[in-house]
Amino acid sequence: MTTPSPVRPSGLRSVALGTPDVAAAEAFYTATWALAPVARQDGAVYLRGSGSPHHLLSLHPRPAAELLDVCFNAASRADVDALAAAVRKAGAGPVGEAGAAKDPAGGYGFSFRDPEGRHFTIVAGDATHADASEKADVPDHLSHVVLCSADVPKSTAFFTDVLGFRVSDRTKMMNFVRCNSDHHQIALAYAEASSLNHIAFYMPDLESVMRGAGRVKDAGYPIEWGVGRHGPGNNVFAYFIGPDEVVIEYTSEVEKVDDSYVVRGPEEWKWPPGRTDHWGISAPPSLRLQAAQKKIRFAIDIAPGEQTPR
Ligand SMILES: [Fe+2]
User: Fold this and answer.
1) Boundaries of CATH 3.10.180.10 in the chain?
2) How many angstroms separate the alpha carbon of residue 233 from the centre of ligand 1?
3) Has residue 310 got a pLDDT over 80?
């Protein structure tokens, strides 16, 4: 065990996806998922929500669907430098030099690969939107990303010991970790291989999760799990399979926690037979959803020094 990092990211900003059909994916994420284009660069489109982050999702032309990068914010350039030093000291994988970010959000950051080869960026001072304002039925910001992991204990230790995250809860399915007062920004799910389990977009309220889910369903994308309320995090959810079989979630009402929060384990997070959430209205996750959660892998051909995946 290393000494816990004295700094941690301040939050989750965005996810970069590769797709063989940027136009089709953009059409879905704007007309149906209710994001809005904010920038274009090198064939990629950057999509914002109603909140302040410059973008929540970017779609990049690639031969196949891939997860390119998960980006966190840091509070300052000094925190970026401290986190870069911590990652470099851990020696887990390649680490790029900190410097000017190359994507349209700008700022100062660095990229690296974690022990499972996943590509992350941490950036400070990137552009934000002055007109941020919650809008009904529109995603505001990213809530969390769940990553299927071939070695959950090792990956969890990397997030806690190197990046300064705290463990919020552990179930038989996954470990939940946080870098701010929301219950989790990342969860690491037990799996045979590393993949993108899902991306969760934060809606302003339960009503927006319900109305947004109805909008997506009307567009021909059935609800694959939900609407329900999770155990850890206590958030409401509706899961869909979007373009390229990327699993996406509308969520809201994520529990706020602080240092007094008591971590519970798999023995305490148990449902009665037949239940997969607090409400018990939804069927369990569809088999199609469970298969899609294993399909999207991290691209392996992007150097950490290249802060914006091309
Ligand atoms: Fe989720």
Assistant:
1) 11-124, 141-292
2) 9
3) no
Count CB atoms within 10 A of the CB of residue 252. 23
Ligand 1 centroid from CA 275, angstroms: 17
CATH topology of domain 141-292: 2,3-Dihydroxybiphenyl 1,2-Dioxygenase; domain 1 (3.10.180)
Phi then psi for 167, rounded to 5 degrees? -75, 130
- 238 C-alpha vs ligand 1 centroid, how far in Å? 9
Distance 84 CA to ligand 1 centre (A): 28
Residues with CB under 5 A from ligand 1 (ion): 200, 249
| Nearest Cα residue to 147 out of 31, 247, 18 | 247
Could you report the per-residue pLDDT of 146-203, keeping only the tens digit for each? 999 999 999 999 999 999 999 999 999 999 999 999 999 999 999 999 999 999 999 9
11-124: CATH topology is: 2,3-Dihydroxybiphenyl 1,2-Dioxygenase; domain 1 (3.10.180)
CA of 231 to the centre of ligand 1 (A): 11
**Rounded alpha-carbon distances, angstroms, from residue 227 to 203, 217, 266:** 13, 12, 23
Q: Ligand 1: distance of its center to the CA of 291 in Å?
A: 16
- For 58-79, write each residue's pLDDT tens digit: 999 999 999 999 999 999 999 9
> pLDDT class for 6, splitting at 50, 70, 90?
confident
